[in-house]
Write a structure and sequence with these properties.
There is one protein chain. The protein has 128 residues and is mainly alpha-helical. It has 2 domains: 1-52, no CATH class; 55-128, AhpD-like (Up-down Bundle). It has helices at 4-17, 19-27, 34-48, 56-70, 73-81, 83-86, 90-104, 106-126. It is globular.
Length: 128
Amino acid sequence: MSNDRYERGMTVRKAVLGTEHVVRAEASKTGFDTDFQQFITESVWGDVWSRPGLELKTRQMITMGILAALGRHEELGAHIRATRHTGVTRDEVKELFLHVAVYAGAPAANSAFSLAKRVYQEMDNQSK
């Protein structure tokens, strides 16, 4: 099924998460989650992430702060990896997680820092 929202969503999703990530996610869809994947592609990526008013980099930083505060580590890890596509620097991530410590608590920030260290190590090892 193709529509403008879906196509716009796929374009933004690939720009943020990377084409390889999106291709893997699409390949792993089943009948169980196909409707959900279409919903998030259209609504999250096609409607919200593609709105004017905020750059993708800013939206990603907001998203990372919320994910860290909520302890959604799987999604947070994907967004940390995606910083290579949006230009969010490691120093900006560090500052973001310090901000999380103030507003969401030190345990949330501690977990986010720990996850980021692991993800950055993986990314560094892959680029060697």
